[in-house]
Design goal:
This protein folds into two domains: 204 residues, Rossmann fold; 100 residues, UDP-galactose 4-epimerase, domain 1 (Alpha-Beta Complex). The chain has ten helices and 14 strands.
Length: 334
Amino acid sequence: MDYEKKRIFVTGGAGYIGSHVVKMLGDQGYELLIYDNLSTGNPWAVLYGDLVVNDLNDKEKIIQTLQNFKPHAIIHFAAFIEVAESVGNPLKYFRNNTANALNLLEAARLCGVDKFIFSSTAAVYGIPAENPVAEDAPLKPINPYGASKAMTEKFLEDLAFGDDSFKYVSLRYFNVASADPEGKIGQAYRNPTHLITRAVKTALGDYPQLQVFGTDYDTPDGTCIRDYIHVVDLASAHLEALKYLLAGGNNQVLNCGYGKGFSVKEVVDTVKEVSGIDFKTADAPRREGDPPALIADNRKIVETFGWKPAHDDLFEIVKGAYEWEKTFRERFRE
């Protein structure tokens, strides 16, 4: 199939993960249209395609845009992602992550777009009974962020059940980190909450200390364990999902992770090793909505796509985040 001539509509393509997927798609010759309200995204991160600045709450604008562009597929990233914020302001998350996803799906159906890739999350599992957690584990989200994504997955499941022509892939991300090795794009949130980014910024002096939320979990060193995936490997999973759907693939729900986890303390030690800076940490109470451990069973995505991670190394992941943060400062702050 001549993939590079396919038109792809990307929501949230100016954001962290979306921009990396856009870059990879553009490098391979896809025709792209990015739709983003820039609440957390950045125009400079869109390296390919045209950018439409608008919100997904405007269904008429979505319909108009899809009718004009006539995409072969949609990749939907646009969402709020901060767990703690979702606990304090759940309606914000259900409105943006769930109601706006419904707007997009309704517009897609009206415009005849029948291939859809969804940016989901491991937060749909809540606190799994077993780790690594497989895709058929019960969905028991323990925060509104996870619940908002689980609801959208249910939309997709029911839509596909009622319409054999509609096909989707839902990718459940574990903890995404690092940056484009070429240094063109990376994580640039105004208020980053990701551990590796916060630790790197602490090493570089942005914060006086790094808070470690919870040191009494039932884990080997008492801190949370997460499965960290390099953003470039995650982007490659999206390309594989897109090619799969365009070639006539069936509906899939797939974990995106490496199948191994690292504790908060292990990440902190790695950031100190990479940076050469022994920054301060401070123990803090547990955060609401944080499971003790969350590790992907990634066998299904490997078997379905033949997906082969190329950056499966914590030191490399941290080094990429650290180098990007230094590049970002030089390029945009000085």
